Amino acid sequence: MRKRKLATMLMCTVLVIGLLSGCTSNNQSNTGNSTDNAGGQAGSTDQIVLRLADTHNEGYVTVRADREFARLVEEKTNGRVKVEVYPGAQLGDEKATIEQAQFGAIDFVRTSISPLSEFNKDLGILMLPYLYRDVDHMFSVLDGEIGENFLASLQENNLLGLTWFDGGARNFYNTKQEIKTVDDLKGMKIRVQESKLMMDLVTALGAIPTPMPFGDVYSGLQTGVIDGAENNWPSYFSTSHYEVAKYYTVDEHTRAPEVILISKMTFDKLSSEDQEAIKEAAKEASLFQREEWAKEEAAAEAEVVAKGSVITRLESNQEFQDAVQSIYAEFGAGYEELIQRIIDTK
């Protein structure tokens, strides 16, 4: 562990030096390297340049929202703070960028809470299966006291959560038949992420969890190595999985919200005025992202329906919820009161 941390710190130092060497403006400074100018104090002409990492490619919903966030930050700080967006995993995968943000080498990170839960295990509660009634219920939880407490808890990891993005709901799709009941899943080989929670979920529903690299799913479905997989609408469409697995069941078993993080080292160097501007910009950018995500989902659904996918909407997923109670007993142990508060949120 000590060797890994030392290696990570060395990588962060090299990254900072490399990025700063490309800065050509004499009026720019980075909070990680110029505390005198942090926050754009009155009378300072220096512009603070901060970096935001995203693993998604240019044009993806979160990247568009990242750029809206950057625009809002610059607008709200009258140009004192500029946010540069680095999409396409230019600065590393999600786990690597989170680690770099802890050391202040990257200022902002857009990440799913799935890798983030490796740093803060409490976040795993937010990914329990069938926890939310729908997307509105999820954001009632996340935008309220519960969600704010989760964001603030990240300070223990030398990070600060700014806002929540929509990561969509994951649904099952397969090559064989419509899934209307738990029995319809029995015996199916379902591709899952290599995660104990996801594997236990599929097992509890009577299917056979089959971990597989995401890039191999299309051929796995096509050749019968697997019978199905699970993902959100935009992913189902953009990967062309609908071509080889036309049965899509809207059960919304998992919602893994996403978050914009700021390095606490960066945040603490900013003036209170710029801290508030960044918080406001993040909240506004999250509303933009959620609206754009909803449009992407609707467009993806329309496309796959037009191409012949059979869409099944469950009248109730109570039977599925009942089947996964063993997961709550294991992964929710010690969080029973919090889970009930989430369920009871209106």
From TrEMBL:
Signal peptide: 1-27
Organism of origin: Clostridium formicaceticum
Official protein name in the record: 2,3-diketo-L-gulonate-binding periplasmic protein YiaO
GO-annotated cellular components: outer membrane-bounded periplasmic space
Domain of life (superkingdom): Bacteria
Keyword terms: Signal
GO terms for biological process, alphabetical: transmembrane transport
Entry GO MF terms: carbohydrate binding
Record's keyword annotation contains Ligase: no
SUPFAM superfamilies xrefs: Periplasmic binding protein-like II (SSF53850)
Alphabetized Gene3D superfamilies for the sequence: Bacterial extracellular solute-binding protein, family 7 (3.40.190.170)
UniProt keyword Transmembrane present: no
